[in-house]
Specification:
The protein has helices at 2-5, 96-111, 143-150, 155-174, 225-228, 239-256, 270-278, 291-300, 311-315, 318-321; strands at 42-44, 59-68, 71-78, 84-90, 120-125, 131-136, 177-178, 187-189, 195-197, 204-205. With 329 residues, the chain is an alpha+beta fold. It folds into two domains: 2-19 and 139-321, Transferase(Phosphotransferase), domain 1, CATH 1.10.510.10; 42-136, Phosphorylase Kinase, domain 1, CATH 3.30.200.20.
Length: 329
């Protein structure tokens, strides 16, 4: 099995509420890295209002939103316009893997322009090698933080979440972009309860073939069976279908309140996850769920990737299409 050879590359990050009662602790707000118009030598603006001509010196730090993957994300205020952004700053001395992921994320952000994907307003590459990405601020956090703060989601809310994410995946897949890390913490929410796809550090732009995408990146817990063992599940890894598997697990987790491949409070480990994903039956919705939701999840969580529905098909599924297309609230 290909999985055994690459075991040490797998990422076992699994932010389950039941695994720990500790909340993430961030240090006190830090100042933004020093900058000037000259220091912000390279700036590429993408679509979006209010950020044209912005330099790092125009921004004031309002605090730290989070840390991860070699960088820090700040809540930043534009002094002239009072617009609020998220500013991701990665230092030049980050390790090579982080640097590669950052360059990949920059390439994808420059290509995307969708209301269902977190918008990039500018990329600043400083002479010292630091890189800062100015992004849309999603002020309600992520689906993970909402799950931890407010508990499980109703089916009405899940239908709206699914609609937003499927529209995002439909856009990305039509532009030959595979996300490869769909999970609650990478789906951000704003005050209008719009859900948008974020974090493209392990995403992949496909050119001619999917073969280059057969690598063990992303969060292990949300990987599809063929990602672990392509020989047993169709021979080739279909990254597009892998995103759909991850979406199915995400929606079921939001409904259940715990990761669906493990029992409540069960600690994840590599062997348990591998066995559950590759050898166990796909998780199913409980009998308390509606028939539409159970069927929708089943369409996402087919072990054979060729049997999973596409984003376009799922957008026409009764669970999504039959609901009021309003916001999550």
């Amino acid at each position: 099995m290909a999985l055994v050879r690459d075991r040490r590359q797998l990422n076992l990050r699994l932010p389950l509420t039941e695994l720990s009662n500790r909340r993430p602790r961030f240090p006190l707000p830090l100042p933004l890295p020093p900058s000037s118009s000259a220091a912000a030598a390279t700036s590429s603006s993408t679509a979006g209002s209010g950020a044209a001509g912005t330099s790092l010196s125009d921004l004031e730090s309002l605090g730290v939103l989070g840390h991860g993957n070699g960088g820090t994300v700040y809540k930043a205020l534009h002094r002239r316009t009072s617009a609020v952004y998220a500013l991701k700053v990665v230092q030049a001395d980050c390790d090579a893997t982080v640097r590669r992921q950052l360059l990949r994320e920059m390439e994808i952000l420059r290509r995307t322009d969708s209301p269902h994907v977190v918008r990039c307003h500018g990329i600043f590459e400083k002479p010292n090698g630091d890189i800062a990405i100015l992004m849309e601020h999603m002020d309600a956090g992520s689906l993970q933080t909402l799950l931890e703060a407010s508990g499980t989601f109703s089916e009405k809310h899940l239908a709206a979440v699914a609609r937003h994410v499927l529209n995002g995946l439909n856009y990305l897949h039509s532009h030959k972009i595979i996300h490869r890390d769909i999970k609650p913490s990478n789906l951000l929410v704003n005050s209008a309860m719009e859900v948008k796809i974020a974090d493209f550090g392990v995403s992949k732009i496909m050119c001619r073939t999917l073969d280059a995408c057969n690598s063990y990146v992303g969060t292990c817990a949300y990987m599809s069976p063929e990602r672990f063992d392509p020989d047993s599940y169709g021979g080739n890894y279909d990254g597009y279908a892998g995103d759909i598997w991850s979406l199915g697990l995400t929606l079921l987790e939001l409904y259940l309140g715990h990761f669906p491949l493990l029992g409540p409070g069960q600690r994840p480990d590599w062997a348990t996850l591998m066995c559950a994903i590759c050898f166990g039956e796909p998780p199913r919705s409980p009998d308390s769920a509606s028939e539409e939701f159970r069927n929708f999840v089943e369409c996402c969580l087919q072990k054979e990737s060729s049997k999973r529905w596409t984003p376009a098909q799922l957008l026409n599924h009764p669970f999504v299409a039959g609901k009021d297309p309003g916001a999550c609230s």
